[in-house]
Write a structure and sequence with these properties.
By secondary structure, the protein is of the alpha+beta class. It has one domain. It is 52% helix and 26% strand. Strands 2-1-4-3 form a 4-stranded antiparallel sheet, with helices on one face. A hairpin with a 5-residue loop joins strand 1 and strand 2.
């Protein structure tokens, strides 16, 4: 009889250890999974901003928007970015004065967001170059 109670206590101890270890493992796993999702999401937002700004510079959308003082081309591009990303773009002159402000029409960044600033140059009529900054902010919808 004495040996049977030892076996019961040993089994109970092993079961409690397995349960406690499982709880700790799944708690740590869920915390790491949330952190990893946040990191991947922020990296994805940064990459999206970089790609959009690069393509707008390469196809002269940024310089044409300044030259013609219109935001429709930039607004169209921001609207075509993924539907679960809110974004806005501000173009600053070399004196840090905002020249153009464009925001995606169907949303607004309120949560944590990613910001990317890209500089670009535009030729003037007298042969000199003017420097501008394009600042894009993006956040998940």
């Amino acid at each position: 009889m004495f040996g049977l109670s030892k076996a019961f206590i040993f089994t109970l101890d092993a079961l409690l250890s397995i349960i406690i270890c499982s709880i700790l493992f799944f708690s740590a796993y869920s915390i790491l999974l949330k952190y990893q999702y946040y990191t991947v999401r922020q990296t994805s937002l940064f990459d999206t901003c970089a790609d959009v700004l690069t393509s707008m510079e390469k196809d002269h959308t940024l310089s044409n928007s300044i030259y013609y003082s219109r935001t429709s081309d930039i607004r169209a591009i921001l609207s075509n970015v993924s539907s679960n990303i809110c974004s806005n773009l501000v173009i600053y002159s070399s004196g840090n004065a905002p020249l153009l402000v464009v925001q995606r029409a169907d949303c607004q960044c309120n949560a944590s967001h990613t910001t990317l600033v890209r500089s670009f140059v535009m030729p003037n009529s007298n042969g000199t170059l003017s420097e501008y900054l394009a600042k894009m902010e993006a956040c998940p919808k």
